[in-house]
Fold this protein.
Amino acid sequence: MLDYLDLHEERMRWLFLLFAGISEVGWVYSLKSTDGFTRLLPLIPYAACGFATAFFLSQSLKTIPVGVTYSVWTGIAVIGSNVVELAIEHQPVQLARLFFIALILLGIIGLQLSFPRH
């Protein structure tokens, strides 16, 4: 039973890390929406996403080392912001851009797979 609980907690920490990365994407896009803090309404999602990012990141740091956490978090944010930019802002799709996004994704997967299991 203890092994199951440890595995469940570990999976939750990785899920928190995913949520932190997704919240970071929301944070940066809500920051863009403030237009240099000249528009006040976008400050609400900006603050909410910022708080969510900090909360989920702090939860993942309970069991995942800082270096791994930070690398995965920023990787998720980089991939997420690029996907949003391609999908919502209709940026042109470039093969080189997709290739390097895929490399970041492979790095995230590699870090997760190399994380020691308890």
